[in-house]
Amino acid sequence: MKIKHYDIRVYGKVQGVFFRASARHRALLLDICGFTKNEQDGCVYIEAEGSEENTAIFIDWCKQGPERAEVTKVEVKEGLLRNYKDFEVKRGIY
Predict the structure, then answer these.
(1) Given CB 3.0 to 4.6 Å as the disulfide criterion, which of 12, 61, 76, 94 pairs with 72?
(2) pLDDT of 19-61, one tens digit each?
(3) Does the active-site annotation cover 83?
(4) Among 24, 26, 38, 54, which one carries the catalytic annotation?
(5) Are the C-beta atoms of 76 and 56 separated by less than 8 Å?
């Protein structure tokens, strides 16, 4: 099984709608490791590592997000593996 790393930026109404907590829940269901955090520009940033199939499912989920989110754009870039061991929600705005 090939493990992939993706840097994901999700834009729209994505802060204050439980996007990060929902992303963590979805990531854990899909056996994805990494983290999520709020950015100063209003987007949510995610680094996700997992199987090619599961990360594709996760990225598709990011295009919708949780119920109260209004996603307008998702940017995805493949990156170098960092071998995360869990999926963390980072608090605050970076």
Answers:
(1) 12
(2) 999 999 999 999 999 999 999 999 999 999 999 999 999 999 9
(3) no
(4) 38
(5) no
